[in-house]
Amino acid sequence: MARMELTKDFANDFAARLTAVATETETLLGRLLGGEPLPGETARPERLLAAMRHAVLGGGKRLRPFLLVETAALCGAPRDGALLAGAALECLHCYSLVHDDLPAMDDDELRRGRPTVHKAFDQATAILAGDALLTLAFDILARVEVHDDANVRIALVTELARASGLGGMAGGQMLDLAAEGRFVERRALGEIEIAMLQAMKTGALIRFACRAGAILGQAGSPERASIDRYGAAIGQAFQIADDLLDVEGDSATLGKATAKDAAAGKATLVSALGVKGAHARLDALIAEADAALETFGAKADTLCAAARFVAQRRN
Amino acid sequence: MARMELTKDFANDFAARLTAVATETETLLGRLLGGEPLPGETARPERLLAAMRHAVLGGGKRLRPFLLVETAALCGAPRDGALLAGAALECLHCYSLVHDDLPAMDDDELRRGRPTVHKAFDQATAILAGDALLTLAFDILARVEVHDDANVRIALVTELARASGLGGMAGGQMLDLAAEGRFVERRALGEIEIAMLQAMKTGALIRFACRAGAILGQAGSPERASIDRYGAAIGQAFQIADDLLDVEGDSATLGKATAKDAAAGKATLVSALGVKGAHARLDALIAEADAALETFGAKADTLCAAARFVAQRRN
């Protein structure tokens, strides 16, 4: 492995940094989802706001904001703008959870140990809360507090839209439903098809988090390419770890149902590679993440630790 | 009335202008929803793309793009950028139709004389198609072809987000469902509450169309204020005309079900003002639209005609 195993001190430092971003993000999101209408808004209807707050507040590791803030720091961007962009990304991520949990989609009743939005409220409210969170993500990214150069904000808007729309996350969810055999007869996907599906469904947003940090820091092309390579590696690692947790985890720790993938006939790399093969792949992806950031030296230690965190997480 | 009744020549000219924008918008949307992935997209899944095309292509008056293009022309903005922004707005409008038609929302099976997206495809696909269209709207607005100044594009992103999210269209739909008595006991709304609900649910996007034209033309504050006043007036007129059609129209001409509002117990200004009172209000709103644009003189004739078109439409 290109980097030594983490020392205990470093691991503590990493945990502190992760917690700091999570706390700051929670505070920011609470403020962004306040009751006061902004210029251009007429009113903020109470029930819709409550559903959005339910979807977004109260937990989550805030992994995507963390990656955004840390890549931004690596590229020398101010922290406040990165935190705000991270909050936007978290709104977008949470919208996708709300819609994916709907009965017509994955039909989940539990998320982070709490009722999903359509259970706590109702389906119509959940659909609208997801829509409004998606919209809010772009609203936030466009704010001058994210970066004073409008070209930078526009680049973030474009990147987020591409990562999350037809050719990204939404498209990936469509492929995932299709792979379950909903619309046509089910057929086993090959490893390459599964990897593409997952690159779209979950990889694209994680990769965006890293790219966004580089954009905010106005990094040069070689740095951007390195960070993008890192983002692609941990995006894959994240999904494999997630699929492993569905096999190996328990629902109490996870706060959501497990063993759902096999039951739904979902295509995962764990089913394609086996549990042992999946663990080996994770090790290879950690090495790939390290190699991608080698050019940054010790400045990238936190992001290298993040790769291990993503690959080895237990919830 | 501040302006003479339309001459036959002028009416023909107006119809030609409306058709031209509709045709150009259709072409643009067809191109935007092509199969080729853009930079930053992985692939465009066929079924999702087909559902998005079903939602967006093949008809509609394209009223919002028309208003955007005509206000942009009034403010001296190039037509191509306005058409592209209009296509973005139409994607956003169509997403709202797809989600509003879902069984959990208004439960409609017919739209523009064709099956709604969840009938032609399925609910999961319809939810994702709406999500992806909403995302695409921001993707398009951020493109340099809309305007070469990133500050102008960012202003459009912000305005569209505010008009369509929690404090705008999505919030208005939430209030509308609440007014039907879904979540709490139904109570009759007063005229002011109905007007606010409608300003959010349908008014905000029509008003955005007009404001966006002024933003693209980088109009000064007084011009922006005039155009905004016009947009607010025709936004209201649009909704009253829509509610009147639900009472007076027939479903064959409209291509969707009628008399649904009363059946659903919807709060409309027609029920608050009566049919005669609603027609009188429409006349007052046309006069208000004319007054708002008086400062532009004859250059605003097309937009004044648009106000009549919106208020007096039969489908």
Describe the structure.
- Two copies of one chain form a homodimer.
- By secondary structure, the first copy, chain A, is mainly α.
- Chain A has one domain (8-312): Farnesyl Diphosphate Synthase (Orthogonal Bundle), CATH 1.10.600.
- In chain A, 70% of the residues lie in helices and 1% in strands.
- Chain A contains 14 helices and two strands.
- A two-stranded antiparallel sheet of chain A has the order 1-2.
- In chain A, strand 1 (110-111) and strand 2 form a beta hairpin.
- In chain A, 55% of the residues are buried.
- The mean pLDDT of chain A is 92.
- Chains A and B meet through helix 2, helix 6, helix 7, helix 8 and helix 9 of A and helix 2, helix 6, helix 7, helix 8 and helix 9 of B.
Which terms would index this structure?
homodimer; 315 residues; mainly alpha; Farnesyl Diphosphate Synthase; two-stranded antiparallel sheet; 14 helices
